Write the structure tokens for this entry.
Amino acid sequence: MSHPVSQSADKVIDHFTLFRQPEYKELFERKKAEFEYGHSDEEVARVSAWTKTEEYKEKNFAREAVVINPTKACQPIGAMFAAQGFEGTLPFVHGSQGCVAYYRTHLTRHFKEPNSAVSSSMTEDAAVFGGLNNMIDGLANAYALYKPKMIAVMTTCMAEVIGDDLSGFISNAKNKESVPADFPVPFAHTPAFVGSHIVGYDNMIKGVLTHFWGTSENFDTPKNETINLIPGFDGFAVGNNRELKRIAGLFGIQLTILSDVSDNFDTPADGEYRMYDGGTPLEATKEAVHAKATISMQEYCTPQSLQFIKEKGQQVAKYNYPMGVTGTDELLLKLAELSGKPVPAELKLERGRLVDAIADSHTHLHGKRFAVYGDPDFCLGMSKFLMELGAEPVHILSTSGSKKWEKQVQKVLDGSPFGKSGKAYGGKDLWHLRSLLFTDKVDYIIGNSYGKYLERDTKIPLIRLTYPIFDRHHHHRYPTWGYQGALNVLVRILDRIFEDMDANTNIVGETDYSFDLVR
Amino acid sequence: MSLSVNEGVDVKGLVDKVLEAYPEKSRKRRAKHLNVLEAEAKDCGVKSNIKSIPGVMTIRGCAYAGSKGVVWGPIKDMIHISHGPVGCGYYSWSGRRNYYVGDTGVDSWGTMHFTSDFQEKDIVFGGDKKLHKVIEEINELFPLVNGISIQSECPIGLIGDDIEAVARAKSEELGKPVVPVRCEGFRGVSQSLGHHIANDVIRDWIFEKTEPKEGFVSTPYDVTIIGDYNIGGDAWASRILLEEIGLRVIAQWSGDGTLAELENTPKAKVNLIHCYRSMNYIARHMEEKFGIPWMEYNFFGPSQIAESLRKIAALFDDTIKENAEKVIAKYQPMVDAVIAKFKPRLEGKKVMIYVGGLRPRHVVDAYHDLGMEIVGTGYEFAHNDDYQRTQHYVKEGTLIYDDVTAFELEKFVEVMRPDLVASGIKEKYVFQKMGLPFRQMHSWDYSGPYHGYDGFAIFARDMDLAINNPVWGIMKAPF
């Protein structure tokens, strides 16, 4: 089995090229033929073809138990994300420690940033006796080592199954002087077997507000001119929150973003590691009870929080990841209404420029069919924007989507002629979407990095516009909200369309008459 | 032992200073995990495989990660159910780069995420019925699946489900192995117990219940690769060398592995172990039960590769021994060229390592081959036997840290200022922001393979590109 050495110091080849060399191709063949005892190529081809059929789709949609490639994570990661948007806040996840390693990894892979959170590292003995001692020691250690301004506690499913009581445990730990009595330790129970990361986000926002605002209803809380805004779980939070602050600045509105991760998840490289950076000041969080209104950018990330805020006498308004021209219009009009200030001329100009860009490019978008998946609010906002561009959202899918959400999507689709081929799939997963893509084809998929497997299987180009994006860098630093954000999204979609066009017209002498220089 | 590394640095003083930040109880506990290697020491002088302290930001994971993520997950022709709530499988979905060849979704499932997605009612009423249904649906939608594993998440062991009964019933019904793994995340102190549990399940539910394939013809040259997860193709870059010296690799555990390879393993003449920590259990079992000897080897860097090839060849006849010499000689010019190119750029650079259960020692000589120095190393989930093995690789004065906390590692690095930190994704950006070159040594930072001669060239290139990138020179603003 001697072969020449393909590797070389001059031009080092790694996995991309190395394994395509003849010696490795032969190695794969030998391994397969002699040792793997797999199925015949014919059988694999037959089953592969079958998975693309209408018959398979029916079986696939008849599934009642197994979930395959879902578009949802579990509550604590959402709670952790929410907590990390507050000034100097260290998330403390009560339960098994592996969970925290997973959340930190997941968020780090998307934002390309450090992500700090601690665990109470409960093991078998804690499963039997409860995790009180882990809470007492854990809070003391976390406070001493990492000097946070606030520790936000949430739970893993282990702690939930054994029924640990956070409120009691935290009081107990304070009695034992783990942290000073007046040190803020908001908490939220975040069972992984209820809802998903978006519910965890809601629970933690409510937990933090409850800590600072008190539990009882108080519709008569005095109000000032500030406006609160809750962004929701958003992979583009770095760009988006900054854009919202810019917009508020142009209006002259005092805006408090409740959970602003934009600085914490985008710290500079200048020789100093900042474990905490930016975030909603704790003082502002406390004061936010006096705001005249709270806007939620993502309805499904905030139902309980908004209810709680309402009970403090605030007006509330909710959106579904508003994107595009009319999505932004609605948000700006609401800001104008709440603040009593007109929409700034500069934003009107930005709107005009966005519409100009859409007009310039509409020919490439009109009638294009899209599959959209992700969190419930993202799917709604994205679908609306697509229809505004003359594109057609066809399959709209969210594993976190409910029946109510399906109806809401349907209503949005019914509002435009471009929505007539669209259908919402709540509670379904990306293996369902695979069947849909084979049986009812679309031109493009909008989703996250996990969609690359769908792109590989179906050859339908993927546009990454929602969390998590692991295999493309830095897009989260650019907004998707506001007119500027809409322009970014438009360009991302157009780029993919043009790249796809070029890729489909580049065979010399065969298809390259359409390989146009000007498009 | 040669000259002490970290000369001129008061490493002991640094350790004491870092420990000062802890509350007393935790300080005492953490002190046992930190040490500076002394000359003529018998081992690294640290306690290991002990519970992490709450609230300190351990870098460790859990038993589920050790079983599903490490041992079982890469077996490509089986479907591994993340049994319980949705998160564990979601976070561990496709992140580890265990390369494989196969038609994903048809005859292989390595980059997919299957879960029983527990809801509150499953917790209250138990999930066994649902598990039955999950397995039935999998078998119907993926008829070419050769076996199914049930990877337990935390709630399973707490609510008293009988996944073994489900597994037995389903194995019978489907005529395929269905194996229950009790790798709930709260078991043990780290990933390590998950490896052990996963090994035991292979023993009890594969070896005990299946047979080597009919028609499998043994040869005197049959070996296995145990404990190579084929990160970025590592196992392939190792296999090619073993094949070249005339051996037949009848099984890969578990990177790019199949159920049949597990089943045929008892036919091996010798089990070759790369990751000792995660798979020594099954090797010891096979030695006891089937009389198969096992041997550890190290395919990182040319010094260790040559030594390992010779050690492996020594177990066989003269032809194999001659082949080993031929193979070493054949790759030598390429290795020399790699060292000639990269060593001048890397010589004398100091490295701090913090990884899992094997690499904190196994990669040391690969760095030495490039003229680099290891000034600190430690493991997430090693046991005492790992630290004993480490002592041979590292030099006097090396800082040893077991289950290091984010706080400690940051402080150590801040003061010791190595030229490279070699650790994981959770650590990467912390140190890059501090202006330090970094390589992920779990995932090879999306590069690889690093095993074998082919991999060494990539390793050398990657260390060079990390250390000698101009970005580290523009961190400080000129104003």
The CA atoms of residues 83 and 378 of chain B lie 32 Å apart. Residues 220-334 of chain B form a domain with the Rossmann fold fold (CATH 3.40.50.1980). Chain B has a mean pLDDT of 97.
